[in-house]
Design brief:
alpha/beta, Carbamate kinase, seven-stranded antiparallel β-sheet
Length: 426
């Protein structure tokens, strides 16, 4: 049994869905197909959510545009579109009624309840099209099987309960193909949750782990894992094979090709991951495995934008290490702030975090009695694995280096363009 995951770029229109069918029809093994929301649907639903929370009725027009997008794709795919549209209409009607009558709650809770619908709509359409090709396929609402805690927008998997439900539902004695959603799950009580932005890769890895899959293939609009984002460094090279550890380092540093949590469930059972192009599916792509066959080692560059460099200094000059460090990071966890880089001295600690301003403000309010805070906004974290002097010069030229962190095989810099100066203090 194998797991295939198709992202939003591969299902943005009717031609993309027809291409999925061509890829899937070539597969002889039992298969679980994990599908993301169409194109930019997640972004569009985030806009709907923000307008609704602001009591701006313009949200209705944005939601109608999302509906028309899905309806248009269905029209392009099906001769008899009534069955598919009735299923989509039922789901849209339920959401519209919720938005009309519900009193808005906390942002993260409402996010998961509203934005999770994108995966439901996309998979309804893709599943019906694949069935029409003759596939013995069953559509699964993964929210009934993938059980999480109630950490909305970044839920943690409850593995024991999920394993029981998933093994019961994905029964290959009944069907050869199953199609389900990435990114979403639900609590024990049935409240919708999401696994973090771009979390469909993680869903594929979870299912592969629980179902003991032979492999996972993530189908992308790139030829495989590259040693840099080609939009940043135009001479980026494809990596033929990388280790699990290498992939974890890349994703943690900010590489966006696969979700950071994807690797662990695969490494735990030594399940290989293939990253391949849905544009050229016959090409080999990249293999991620425990022991890759490395023909050459080249620098790997990662750029993570929209960062804040935050420095915390105890007001009483007490040492940062020990109890102070523990309580400080507990505060980061409580406010849902992920730390991308840590650098500590005796009486200060520097952290690089995503620029989620409201969370940072709340964190600093909690810490202000004991800590002074200095921060630089609009900074970038640059990482080079397998670095050389030339590779470092290439990415840091023209930047002011605010912080440098170096190990045997990895160097990270927090930088800003030399023209962009200014220090903010809290």
């Amino acid at each position: 049994m194998k797991v295939y995951k198709f992202g939003g770029a591969s299902v943005r229109d009717a031609e993309g869905i027809k291409n999925i069918a061509r890829i899937v029809l070539k597969e002889k093994s039992d298969l679980v197909i994990v599908v993301s929301a169409f194109g930019k649907t997640t972004n569009a639903l985030e806009k709907v959510l923000k307008l609704w929370l602001a009591r701006d009725y313009e949200y209705k027009n944005h939601l109608e545009a999302v509906y028309n997008y899905h309806s248009g794709v269905a029209d392009d795919l099906f001769h008899d579109v009534d069955l598919v549209k009735s299923k989509i209409d039922d789901s849209f009607t339920f959401l519209k009624e919720y938005l009309r009558s519900a009193k808005p709650g906390e942002y993260d809770y409402e996010y998961d309840r509203i934005v999770s619908n994108g995966e439901i709509w996309s998979t309804i359409i893709v599943a019906e099209f694949l069935k029409n090709t003759g596939l013995d396929l069953e559509w699964i609402d993964i929210r009934k099987s993938l059980v999480t805690d109630d950490r909305f927008r970044d839920a943690n998997i409850i593995w024991d309960e999920s394993q029981k439900r998933i093994n019961k539902v994905f029964d290959f004695t009944l069907h050869k193909f199953y199609l389900t959603q990435g990114f979403i799950g639900s609590t024990i009580s049935g409240e919708s949750t999401t696994l973090g932005r771009e979390g469909s890769d993680y869903t594929a890895a979870i299912l592969a782990n629980i179902l003991d899959a032979e492999s996972v293939t993530v189908w992308k609009d790139v030829p495989g894992l590259l040693n840099a984002d080609p939009k940043w460094l135009h001479d980026a090279e494809k990596l033929d094979e990388v280790s699990y550890r290498e992939a974890v380092e890349m994703t943690f540093s900010g590489a966006k090709v696969i979700h950071p949590k994807t690797i662990k469930p695969l490494q735990n059972k030594n399940i290989p991951l293939f990253v391949k192009s849905f544009v050229n599916p016959e090409k080999e792509g990249t293999l991620v495995t425990e022991e890759p066959n490395l023909k050459k080692i080249i620098p790997v560059f990662v750029r993570k934008e929209n960062q804040v460099l935050l420095s915390l200094l105890p007001k009483d000059f007490s040492f940062v290490m020990g109890d102070n460090l523990s309580s400080m990071f507990q505060a980061f966890i409580q406010h849902g702030i992920k730390v991308n880089l840590v650098d500590a001295s005796a009486v200060s600690i520097n952290v690089c975090v995503d620029d989620e301003r409201s969370k940072i403000v709340n964190l600093l309010n909690d810490l202000k009695e004991e800590y002074l805070a200095v921060y630089n906004e609009d900074v970038v974290m640059l990482s080079v694995r397998h670095y050389t002097p030339a590779s470092i010069e290439r990415i840091t030229a023209g930047h002011e280096i605010l912080l440098e962190q170096r190990s045997r095989s990895m160097v990270r810099f927090v930088v800003r363009p030399i023209a962009s100066l200014g220090l903010c203090r809290d």
